[in-house]
Amino acid sequence: MPDFKLVISDPGSTSSKVENVKVKVSDKVQAQSGEKEGKNLPIAKMNEKTKQSLNADMFVTLEITKQEGDKLSKIKTHFRIEVDSTVPENEIWISQEASEKYGASEFEAKAYRTKAFQLTVDQNKSSLIGRKIGDVVELGTLGVPLKLKITGGSDNSGFPMRPDVGGGVKKRLLISGPPGYHPEEDGERRRKTVRGNMVVQELVQVNAIILR
Q: Does the model's pTM come out above 0.85?
């Protein structure tokens, strides 16, 4: 079975704060298995006060703006938080491998609670196959217990899952709203191809939200 993308959103990120922090490479932070393949998130160590200041929970995003030729580019990475009291306040430690994306071992960055991140999931090892939109699943591959609710997805042809279509079938239906169709006028309907509400091998992306 091929891998698919699991896009995880955090509804609690609407109350997040953006703070400027100092980021340093530390030998106390090690690269995680599967990190380069997108199957795991790198670690960011911070103290409890910094975590509270960001209103962060389990994940944090570090973002910088970098000059690349004539263009300014935003570079950001999502990290799993580990609380460490030895890290100074308003400072975050990351691994040498994670710092390579930023091109520096010490830099200033914007830090905020992660709104959404993506993982590459091996279908052979996933408990998602056969699950449906609305189902709640446990994900333990990140080193923290995550309870996720499946909200949708799309297949290898770009057709979206719909909660009102049973199974993993592909169907062409007359629909009046999303997912699969966004009408320009009230009452407008179109015949569109959509996927059923079950996670099957033909999907390339599954969307989920974190439950607490």
A: yes
